[in-house]
């Protein structure tokens, strides 16, 4: 029996339900299709990561991955005509466009008499399985996670890597090399970024082990300190399915058992709930598909966002004159990643201090983040804007100075990414505009020359935002 296994964001051999099913049936043809017809093409940073991840999984499959580009149904129909397979399997995606595409493909293949099966391999709980007692979806995280997910069922235990895979030996036409997908940028801006990462299943396992052996049991507090390597940094590996959330979940539980520590330990509970937030984002997108472009809270449809391309570009380039904002945006550009606490700070600054549309921030993150996940990106930006589900209230405006003083008290994070400020005293590094000119001169800094003047006055822009957002209370 011949089974085509269609790989997507599940680029691993361990805990792979579709692959395990295909192996049990007989011979397997693993394929990857670069879908050229998607409305929202993945960003430049994720394309670069995907190139290396595909090379890694092809090596793990002993060179047997067959890569195609085009419209998936056309590619699959051609393969069906050439190979006469018995079945086609894949692991599900729960994004709106993916669901529509897969539903059409599944129907078309079944009409040809093929066995078609799909599996949930990327989520601890399928978005279809968690509903309130009245049958409606949750809109608030805590009851979703505590009452819905945790009370519903334990996550599926991870599957073992197949001991042996019998690959289809028949040659296939129209396959291309991974390099032919053109994911490597022509201008080598990616070299610095990729030095920070090891894409692929082994890289994901190594990253998980480092987290378990180090930051896990100090996670709740230290995760907020951007200068400390206290987070798992697994998000890009999870996005591409190089490791499953089930593997991470049970690895954490195993570590607790080894250490004799309860899974209710605050650090452990906090970390597992972060996996829950990833689940919640996918859940919201599944049930409220228009949130990709539309405000979850329809009152925000009446909000008059400003348009200022000069300020937007200053934010994108890390030249706002607000040190922790600039540090975050420069970290993003250099590494394809940004510390989560800082993501909230730079997001709040864009949508509240600058009053620029959250969609502008979402688009920039989509292109620059190696962990750019549609559900998480959209849900997070709508959260910080106040327009999303379980969102930060409109009057919650992160003060980047006090946030910096609290979570980067010595300015270590700022000095890493804004080296022109490295000699500024810690008490002034988050607000250099308050320093006397002679102090800045002694530090080798001239505002407006070596480092920008603040793009806006934080106090005045905060009040402007409060006044603007308060108008939404009157919208019916």
Automatic annotation (TrEMBL):
<feature type="binding site">
    <location>
        <position position="271"/>
    </location>
    <ligand>
        <name>FAD</name>
    </ligand>
</feature>
<comment type="similarity">
    <text>Belongs to the DNA photolyase class-1 family.</text>
</comment>
<feature type="site" description="Electron transfer via tryptophanyl radical">
    <location>
        <position position="358"/>
    </location>
</feature>
<dbReference type="Pfam" id="PF03441">
    <property type="entry name" value="FAD_binding_7"/>
</dbReference>
<feature type="site" description="Electron transfer via tryptophanyl radical">
    <location>
        <position position="305"/>
    </location>
</feature>
<dbReference type="GO" id="GO:0000719">
    <property type="term" value="P:photoreactive repair"/>
</dbReference>
<feature type="site" description="Electron transfer via tryptophanyl radical">
    <location>
        <position position="381"/>
    </location>
</feature>
<dbReference type="GO" id="GO:0071949">
    <property type="term" value="F:FAD binding"/>
</dbReference>
<keyword id="KW-0274">FAD</keyword>
<dbReference type="InterPro" id="IPR018394">
    <property type="entry name" value="DNA_photolyase_1_CS_C"/>
</dbReference>
<dbReference type="InterPro" id="IPR036155">
    <property type="entry name" value="Crypto/Photolyase_N_sf"/>
</dbReference>
<dbReference type="Pfam" id="PF00875">
    <property type="entry name" value="DNA_photolyase"/>
</dbReference>
<dbReference type="GO" id="GO:0003904">
    <property type="term" value="F:deoxyribodipyrimidine photo-lyase activity"/>
</dbReference>
<dbReference type="InterPro" id="IPR005101">
    <property type="entry name" value="Cryptochr/Photolyase_FAD-bd"/>
</dbReference>
<protein>
    <recommendedName>
        <fullName>Deoxyribodipyrimidine photo-lyase</fullName>
        <ecNumber>4.1.99.3</ecNumber>
    </recommendedName>
</protein>
<dbReference type="InterPro" id="IPR036134">
    <property type="entry name" value="Crypto/Photolyase_FAD-like_sf"/>
</dbReference>
<dbReference type="GO" id="GO:0003677">
    <property type="term" value="F:DNA binding"/>
</dbReference>
<feature type="domain" description="Photolyase/cryptochrome alpha/beta">
    <location>
        <begin position="1"/>
        <end position="124"/>
    </location>
</feature>
<keyword id="KW-0157">Chromophore</keyword>
<feature type="binding site">
    <location>
        <begin position="231"/>
        <end position="235"/>
    </location>
    <ligand>
        <name>FAD</name>
    </ligand>
</feature>
<dbReference type="GO" id="GO:0009416">
    <property type="term" value="P:response to light stimulus"/>
</dbReference>
<dbReference type="InterPro" id="IPR006050">
    <property type="entry name" value="DNA_photolyase_N"/>
</dbReference>
<dbReference type="InterPro" id="IPR014729">
    <property type="entry name" value="Rossmann-like_a/b/a_fold"/>
</dbReference>
<feature type="binding site">
    <location>
        <position position="219"/>
    </location>
    <ligand>
        <name>FAD</name>
    </ligand>
</feature>
<comment type="similarity">
    <text>Belongs to the DNA photolyase family.</text>
</comment>
<feature type="binding site">
    <location>
        <begin position="371"/>
        <end position="373"/>
    </location>
    <ligand>
        <name>FAD</name>
    </ligand>
</feature>
<comment type="function">
    <text>Involved in repair of UV radiation-induced DNA damage. Catalyzes the light-dependent monomerization (300-600 nm) of cyclobutyl pyrimidine dimers (in cis-syn configuration), which are formed between adjacent bases on the same DNA strand upon exposure to ultraviolet radiation.</text>
</comment>
<keyword id="KW-0285">Flavoprotein</keyword>
<dbReference type="InterPro" id="IPR002081">
    <property type="entry name" value="Cryptochrome/DNA_photolyase_1"/>
</dbReference>
